[in-house]
């Protein structure tokens, strides 16, 4: 049981390039979330999903798109990367009902030049 | 929008002493709160949670206190150890029935001195 995993661990992009961050969870969780964390700050929600095939915007969705084609995967896309998107990205998942605790992946560090 | 914030950005304690980390929240409709620990280069790790119908909850070496009157949370760590050095975040999941997205405070850096 690996929990929540993220790919890649680190990436450098040039302004205007695109990329996709992959999040996978093996806990059969319904809910999945993408956050970004900037230096000295807490995590801010980008997008989230309440189940396979659904997505919704969070606090800071601009410049990002997401897809949840399979229950266990949640993809975060940057169509045209900007330096302001330099950050550490965390994925999280949680079960539906009962406990609302979110479990986090190890993060993806993204540098946009 | 509503936010969760922390009183102090840094806290240094001697090994073996007790640590107290504070957090203020503003969403009076929130009914569930979580404390996370984040070590350098890692994702947040669940420590303890508490529902709004409770005032206190204890775990292993950790206690969370909730004061709904003043919208204040605290995390107490007993006999602080070097491995406790990390950034601690409180998070608010919003009211029951919402998608339960977390609103994080900015974090407190706990440093344990030898």
Largest interface: A-B, 27 and 25 residues
Number of helices of chain A: 0
Number of DSSP helical runs of chain B: 0
Gyration radius of chain A, rounded: 13 Å
Strand content of chain B: over 45%
Note down, in words, how this protein is organized:
The complex is a heterodimer of chains A (113) and B (114). Chain A contains no helices and eleven strands. Chain A is mostly beta strands and 113 residues long. In chain A, strands 2, 4, 5, 6, 9, 10 and 11 form a seven-stranded mixed sheet that branches. The model of chain A has no long low-confidence stretch (mean pLDDT 93). With 114 residues, chain B is mainly beta. Chain B contains no helices and eleven strands. In chain B, the strands form two sheets. In chain B, strands 2, 4, 5, 9, 10 and 11 form a six-stranded mixed sheet that branches. Classes of the chains: A mainly beta (113), B mainly beta (114). Chains A and B meet through strand 4, strand 5, strand 9 and strand 10 of A and strand 4, strand 5 and strand 10 of B.
What key phrases describe this protein's structure?
heterodimer, A: 113 residues, mainly beta, 4-stranded antiparallel β-sheet, B: 114 residues, 6-stranded mixed β-sheet, 5-stranded antiparallel β-sheet
Architecture blueprint of SSEs:
The complex is a heterodimer of chains A (113) and B (114).
Chain A: E1 4-7, E2 10-13, E3 19-25, E4 31-37, E5 43-49, E6 56-57, E7 65-67, E8 73-78, E9 87-94, E10 103-104, E11 108-112
Parallel strand pairs in A: 2-11
Antiparallel strand pairs in A: 1-3, 3-8, 4-5, 4-9, 5-6, 7-8, 9-10, 9-11
Chain B: E1 4-5, E2 10-14, E3 19-25, E4 32-38, E5 45-51, E6 56-58, E7 62-67, E8 72-77, E9 86-92, E10 103-104, E11 108-113
Parallel strand pairs in B: 2-11
Antiparallel strand pairs in B: 1-3, 3-8, 4-5, 4-9, 6-7, 7-8, 9-10, 9-11
């Amino acid at each position: 049981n690996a929990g929540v995993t993220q790919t890649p661990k680190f990436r450098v992009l040039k302004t205007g390039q695109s990329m996709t961050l992959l999040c996978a969870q093996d806990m059969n969780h319904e809910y999945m979330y993408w956050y970004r964390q900037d230096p000295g700050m807490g995590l801010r929600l980008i997008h989230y999903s309440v189940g396979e095939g659904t997505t919704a915007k969070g606090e800071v969705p601009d410049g990002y798109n997401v897809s949840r084609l399979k229950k266990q995967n949640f993809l975060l896309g940057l169509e045209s990367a900007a330096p302001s998107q330099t950050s550490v990205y965390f994925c999280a998942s949680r079960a539906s009902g009962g406990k609302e605790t979110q479990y986090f992946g190890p993060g993806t560090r993204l540098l946009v030049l | 929008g509503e936010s969760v914030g922390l009183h102090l950005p840094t806290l240094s304690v001697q090994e073996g002493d007790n640590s107290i980390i504070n957090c203020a929240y503003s969403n009076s409709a929130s009914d569930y709160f979580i404390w996370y620990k984040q070590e350098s280069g890692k994702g947040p790790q669940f420590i303890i949670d508490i529902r709004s119908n409770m005032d206190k909850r204890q775990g292993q070496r950790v206690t969370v206190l909730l004061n709904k009157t003043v919208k204040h949370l605290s995390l107490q760590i007993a006999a602080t150890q070097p491995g406790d050095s990390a950034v601690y975040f409180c998070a608010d999941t919003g009211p029951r029935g919402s998608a339960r997205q977390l609103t994080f405070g900015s974090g407190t850096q706990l440093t344990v001195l030898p």
